[in-house]
Structure formats: C-alpha cells, structure tokens
Amino acid sequence: xxxxxxxxxxxxxxxxDERVMLDFFHEIIFPAFCRPRxxxxxxxxxxxxLDPRITEIRSGDISSLALTGFFVKxxxxxxxxxxxxxxxxxxxxxxxxxxASSAIFVLLLDSHRLLYVKxxxxxxKMQEFASFLRRQFKLSHIDYISKxxxxxxxxxxxxxxxxxxxxxxxEVPAPKLDLVPLASKDSLVDLLNRYSIIKSLxxxxxxxxxxxxxxGLFSGLRRGKQETGSKKSSAKFEWDKETGLNKDGCARQVExxxxxxxxxxxxxxxxxxxxxxxxxxxxxxxxxxxxESIVKxxxxxxxxxLYDIFQExxxxxxxxxxxxxxxxxxxxxxxKKKLAL
Length: 341
Hints:
Elements: E1 3-15, E2 19-20, H1 25-33, E3 46-59, E4 62-83, E5 90-108, E6 113-118, H2 126-152, H3 161-167, E7 175-181, H4 185-192, E8 197-205, H5 216-228, E9 234-238, H6 247-260, E10 263-270, E11 276-280, E12 287-291, H7 292-295, H8 299-315, H9 329-340
Antiparallel strand pairs: 1-2, 1-6, 1-7, 1-12, 3-4, 4-5, 5-6, 8-9, 8-10, 10-11
Helix pairs in contact: 1-2, 4-6
C-alpha cells in the first residue's frame, strides 16, 4: 500500500497580546477559509480552499470540533522540449497542461493543532498553506473592520485601509499566524548523530494560544518575557571548543518543544568532514506514515481516520497537548450549537 505522511503543526493565531483565534472565529477566521476563489493569470498557480467544513470528530471517548477542507494548487505546466523517441535527440515541442494538486487539512479547534497530508508528492507544503492563510486572514480582517466602521458611521464614506487599521488597532488588532511544525524526537536524534561537533543550540519561544506551559526552561523564559516586556524570548547554548555541546543534553532541552510546537529550535555544527550542518523544526518535523487510501476517501471519513492517528500519538506521549484553562468554551459551544441545527 502506497504511503503518504501526516505533518502536525501548532496553529497559533493571535490578535494582539490578549486575544486568540477563537475570539474572532465567526467574524474573521472562518470567513477567511470561505473567501471566494481568486482567479489569477493562468500563467500563475491559483491557490484556494475547497469545501471548508466545521465538523465534530470523535476517536473513542474523545472528541473535537474541527475545521476541515482541501488546500488546492491549480496551475499550468509548461514544457519546451522533449527527447525524440526515435533519434534520442532533444527537439522543441512546446505544450501546456492543466494540473492540480491538493492537501487535506484538519484544524482542531480545542487544541489548535493542524493535521496536514499532501494527497500527491508534489502537493503544496504545509508552510505554503500558512502563507496562503496569512493573506486570507489579512483580507478577512479588513472586511470585518470595514463592516464595523460602516455600521458605526452610517451615511459616511468608507475610509482608506491604513486609517481603518489605525482606528481599530486596539479593538480588533490585525491577526498574526505562526504555524510551528511539531518535530519528531527520533528524527532529531538521528540528525544530531550526524554531527561531529554541535557548536550552538538556539531556542526561541513562539506565541501560544494561552495554554499553560510548566516545563522548566520554557516557563522561565516566558516569565522573563512577561516581566521585561520583551517581544521575543530565546536561549542560546554555545559549544565547548574541545567536545562541543552534549548531544543527549541538547535533545532533552528541546524535547518539550518537539512535542508541543511552542518554540523554534536551531542547531549549528559540523560533520566529521568539517561540513557545516544546520537543524531546524523543518528538518526534523514529524512525518507520520498514513496509507494513501485514507486521503483518497471522502472528506468526512479521511478526517476521522487522521484524528484517530493523532489521538494515538497523544496516547503514546509523542505529542503533548495543553489546552488553555479559559478554553474559549463559549465560542466552542456556539459552534457546536450551530452544527446541531
């Protein structure tokens, strides 16, 4: 059976320092997923979301509300030459062909984890999906504050976008999306073993969805960030010139980050031949094998099976989930109530 791979990301969308994705889910987030398809020049790829749905999925006794759909890349493939099958020579033969590729995504609304599977090997990457969503969120945000302005100023002409952003900077800050790939400890250890010397390890905290993080290093860094008012918080460990950093110790320091996706990591060092090596979240990202048959199934069935696999990873403690104590329970209840209608 052919295999695909499920990637998992920590989906952190914040509106300023105080509010997160679910605070503006109905007003900005879900409308961004449902924006009309933009038709670009046929010489360029058209990216869009197909069939976005909110559904409740269940795995045993555990359930979650999820936003699911397909991320599609519609493009034109061009060629200029081919190899002549009779002579073996290169000959001009310009042709074009329409081509589409896609990925299925499952955004879990309680834990803010994104499950992402490319349905073809050449389908758009998870970070391409994040870049697309940043543009969609920006447009949806402008739509919403424009609507607020017109409702509050009936009869007035619409004002420029820059003035709208300034006017609503505190009430509805612009959304900022961070999608951090969860890393695989096994992949990380395997990559670290390719190093002869680890020269440095840098850990930089990413924003959270207000979940509590009690891990020692991360807790201290976040507390320091809050107390100093810093925009960023990071820790850097540098090498001993004789032996380099301890590999096992480095792996233990970043393990919470690999399981939660709450920090970006960067290792720098050299191989036995002296070649420079770098490891980031992207290089050691978790890629869970799934049967190709899953992503070829109807959306509902595929979503359910991917959620089952995700819950197995949680059960095996390969992934850690820490849901915010506030949890935006009212918003989740509203979404669930609408599903029941």
